[in-house]
Amino acid sequence: MVGYKFMGKAHSHAYKDVGMFFDLEAPVVMKAICGRDEQGVKEAADKFGWESYETDWKKLVARDDIDFIDINAPSDAHKEIALAAIAAGKHVFCEKPLALNLADAREMLDAAEKAGVKHAICFNYRFLPAVQLAKQIIESGKLGEIHHYRATYLQDWLVDPESPLAWRLKKEVAGSGTHGDLNAHSIDLARFLIGEFDRVVGHSRTFVKQRPIPSSTSGLSGKGTSEMGEVTVDDATGFLADFKNGAMGVFIATRFAAGRKNHNTFEIHGSKGTLRWDLERLNELEVYFREDEPELAGFRTILATDPSHKYAGNWWPAGHIIGYEHGFVHIVYEFLQHMANGSPFAPTFLDGVRCQEVLEAVDLSIERGKWVGIEEV
Amino acid sequence: MVGYKFMGKAHSHAYKDVGMFFDLEAPVVMKAICGRDEQGVKEAADKFGWESYETDWKKLVARDDIDFIDINAPSDAHKEIALAAIAAGKHVFCEKPLALNLADAREMLDAAEKAGVKHAICFNYRFLPAVQLAKQIIESGKLGEIHHYRATYLQDWLVDPESPLAWRLKKEVAGSGTHGDLNAHSIDLARFLIGEFDRVVGHSRTFVKQRPIPSSTSGLSGKGTSEMGEVTVDDATGFLADFKNGAMGVFIATRFAAGRKNHNTFEIHGSKGTLRWDLERLNELEVYFREDEPELAGFRTILATDPSHKYAGNWWPAGHIIGYEHGFVHIVYEFLQHMANGSPFAPTFLDGVRCQEVLEAVDLSIERGKWVGIEEV
Amino acid sequence: MVGYKFMGKAHSHAYKDVGMFFDLEAPVVMKAICGRDEQGVKEAADKFGWESYETDWKKLVARDDIDFIDINAPSDAHKEIALAAIAAGKHVFCEKPLALNLADAREMLDAAEKAGVKHAICFNYRFLPAVQLAKQIIESGKLGEIHHYRATYLQDWLVDPESPLAWRLKKEVAGSGTHGDLNAHSIDLARFLIGEFDRVVGHSRTFVKQRPIPSSTSGLSGKGTSEMGEVTVDDATGFLADFKNGAMGVFIATRFAAGRKNHNTFEIHGSKGTLRWDLERLNELEVYFREDEPELAGFRTILATDPSHKYAGNWWPAGHIIGYEHGFVHIVYEFLQHMANGSPFAPTFLDGVRCQEVLEAVDLSIERGKWVGIEEV
Amino acid sequence: MVGYKFMGKAHSHAYKDVGMFFDLEAPVVMKAICGRDEQGVKEAADKFGWESYETDWKKLVARDDIDFIDINAPSDAHKEIALAAIAAGKHVFCEKPLALNLADAREMLDAAEKAGVKHAICFNYRFLPAVQLAKQIIESGKLGEIHHYRATYLQDWLVDPESPLAWRLKKEVAGSGTHGDLNAHSIDLARFLIGEFDRVVGHSRTFVKQRPIPSSTSGLSGKGTSEMGEVTVDDATGFLADFKNGAMGVFIATRFAAGRKNHNTFEIHGSKGTLRWDLERLNELEVYFREDEPELAGFRTILATDPSHKYAGNWWPAGHIIGYEHGFVHIVYEFLQHMANGSPFAPTFLDGVRCQEVLEAVDLSIERGKWVGIEEV
Predict the structure, then answer these.
(1) How much of chain D exceeds pLDDT 70, in percent?
(2) Pfam families of this UniProt entry (chains A, B, C, D) (predicted)?
(3) Deepest of A121, A203, B17, B219, by most Cβ within 10 A of its Cβ?
């Protein structure tokens, strides 16, 4: 694994716990974690339970005792590491966004396909039981023809103008801002649930254009210094979408929504019913079915912790909720099985590319002030 | 009053009840109600408590014992009646939309201003206690600078393809469909709460293009005949907006949102907090303040039934909620006072015109496939 | 009508509006309102729309042009007025509690039955659409055998120790405190929904034993004087109940529940499902059905504003909610029809007596420190 | 560790993860797990990450390489194992209930105190961030004097009469039924949050008196056989309580509440505010403060995932919720620190005894049909 910060912790936890709750075809061995700062990565290796550590990802990629590489380094490093890992015949599991831009993302997909290695992109929210239930309801036809899709991904950690200039706010490192970080998740969920985008039109803002440069690389927490730096990504991006199936979509992502800590939501209206989901109450799915008798129809709040809900039975009895990190355990479980026995798996690098196409079409629409077809990027 | 159906009932109720709960400068006398169908209007006059009735609105307008005219006939009749009433020196209270198009709306505004009569448009939702509270919070500066405005107005009575072709679905009578009916309310609330629109871009759909022609004029209820007619208005319209103050906006109105019966909502993010409101729980306002201590900050659900909430003290003790029709009582109260003693009043025909401008800019943006400035219409 | 304060206003409004929204067998004529303070009752008569007023209820009862008497004077006056009205052959509609104690209540019931007049007690919450839906679901068998009933009636207007000593806090006028005022409603709803009580055991508190004597008789609002008076009723009373059908019950009423303004709730668990209701969101009923497929079962929030919901169709289209006072319109409608054409009606004085029995059994259980059977009082 | 079923899994997970998210004074080494069925315990050891396994707890207790024993075997085995472990000088962490009855619980407490070993009882819900926040708010005085405490612990897995006769339904193994299993948690939370009980009165039911005997020992899931056995514990128990500080309490626990999967809730009213919590949304705490301005006061939904919330900062950024099992990680963390460096720790066996006293006082009150003081048991 390359990277040992927020995502490094989430992924490490997944590898550590997956075997306890799921029956794996092949066991996980947590061979090595890699990071540039030796002290930091050594501590992470100890704490997270890795057998060894490296400070140069090239050494990691070169090791014979490693079958697959998990990349959760900053976004600007994804491509180089992934290509090297693929070249070394390793399977690759990459954090989103796949790359800093569409061209790079496509290059990574091509490389992986040609090399025949297994590849995955970490769109972890697909793997929550309530989201799986949403998918199953739509696929069963119970929602009918889809008319509307609305998504929000709202956070509030940038609304404070004193919040420091983290690496996520530098375009050259992060590739994109709120749009690439948060809308990427919303776009992937929309594709997963109702299908491909046709065209988009958007707008965006950088509300706070200069921020204090942080004293350390820690990013999100802690105070900044008195020196100011330029924010080179968006604070918020919204867009309208037409889907290939005729549905209308609305997406908004922002880090300026006071009180919304991690408000990743979707609401989907079909000819037979409605679904609503919110990451802050990730165990719940709200569902309305028109086929219910009129006097008894209402939004159902389904607590997706029943043994009948996918993955839920691997954890605790009904009503004992799970948390954010469980999505990582589930995606890791599915990808491990995929590598071990070839069971079907998505999302792959292809989904990373498709997501990047939509992101860039939105950017282009903002430049042009008009609708842009996905095939135009 | 002209019109005696859904809105006629809501308005009549307001005139009947307003004096019981509010102290009026001048008493209301419910002189006459007018409708084309004599049997229908006679029954309505009896049931709603009007002293007399007319079947020709021209006679109503000509009566000397009447000081002001309330117009809630279908939208295509608004202009002619209003102009005649204004010409006769009556004050005018008109249902939205003001007219079938912007040119007509502007003509009505001009006529009213030149004649010096009092004029009002029935954007009733401004007058609910929770919405008044939202306004007061924003004006006090407690929300800070506004960054985001999101509105939905969702209903579901058209999702059934057998739902008949009501007059609201014919462009020549209604002027517009979901957009003009529902987005009009959302646009007015946005203007009321955070100010003027700068530019917009939208998309729309007519999901069901043919519907059964109804056997009667009753519209919403009852079965249609076997004959089919063309739906000439939109079923759903969504749009992005930039506001003059720099805020980003998203609006979506549809009658295809299964389970959302009257889901008129807004969510507003400012630099100091967030507001959220939903017509289906119209007594409640959700508020988040960043200035609360971090460990105690959370969305507050304020039940706007306290004597400190505008209008609430005129009704019942705290916790005894009010309903949809109370907004009409409040707007009628304010307009009656305005006519009696010149107290400030909005929304007037000017607000009707401003709303129409945004509606038409959205339509134009749909035609052109790109952003349209409000000043372009 | 006798009384013109809070309840006088609510009842007057009901008589005024009922004919507008409901088809009555016989029209309502609002003949006369009665109160001791001439200035006050005169103003009320004007404002509420009564033809005349009286300052002596004996004169009111003696009038030949009056067929029925609505009693919403303070509780200590109920019995005398009701007996006189019954003696005069008037139908009687009485606010709860029926009387200050069980013996008086039984006397009133006997008198009404012997005289053959129609009688009603104003348990208005039975007549809200969501409560009617709850009743209908239980009667249809969809909830199965009832196992649990839990009720709360929580307010917070006494939690402030400076809140003055209103008449409701004097045992000699009010008969009882929170228990008689709030638990009375909860007991009636329980009887209405699941049947008769078998035995009870309770506890109660008067948290604030002395309060400022109010300068006027206005009671709830306004500051008190510096003189203090004794609170002679309970601030809070809770009790366990066994029902005759075997269900277990829990009831708690208090005016010391900060933030709960009018939190009249019930939750009922049956062998096939669960119901939950809350007066602060009175249009909604939450329902869970075990017969739903396990992966799709969840609490449904039914918005009881559909034409299929009792009374809802008389008001507005689906999703346009109603308020607190509508319950009075509905009960008045049913009682007017009952008087006009003998259609079935409950709750009558019998329900007032049954409710009083439970209230007094709870009081007795508190005295004795043990369970008391209802038949013991 | 003794036991490897539901609780065994939850505890094992806690030991496995605690070092990854918390800085421990002394590392955890998962030495051995113990269970009677060799095949089962061997698999559990592998899956959960224990170094070795035992099939006889006496051998476990005798091992020199083990410093502390975690007991999560069925309740009837707690006492014997705990006494042996204490005798061997091991620290002991015991699942609730401490023992089958109060006398045994007191004996265990005495033994532990005399031996000077560290002891803990697994009341895990104390250790959730939102519950910690509740505690902190009460201790800070922000809630004022406590007037009311209401708790429910509702589940629904027994409402199906075909649900088999699990060991939890046999008094001789489980000691108690719903009362001992669920009310035990509610009693502990009440003691933790507002203090000691003074007296109680209750009632209980066994709604389904016979159930199918399960074919295996698995308990909760799976079909039973056609043979029926007697249910010897309660399905539901409710009780009123008076607290030593004068507060009134209501508690109800049942496994017959359709749709309530794990509805462990409390609502606390103080003279300055209200708190409400629900295990099914365990990351949230609802709070109302009377000191807020009247027009802005409302129930706040605090998402207790901020770094300022206890334990939350050890996991993920704000808004990334945690689940049921995290409470075990936290209690294990605190007890490990307590053993390593003597930092303060509760709940100990003393809390187990206190809880048992209340449970038995309720049982006694049911027998006697009247209030029972805690000191009477």
Answers:
(1) 98
(2) GFO_IDH_MocA, GFO_IDH_MocA_C3
(3) A121
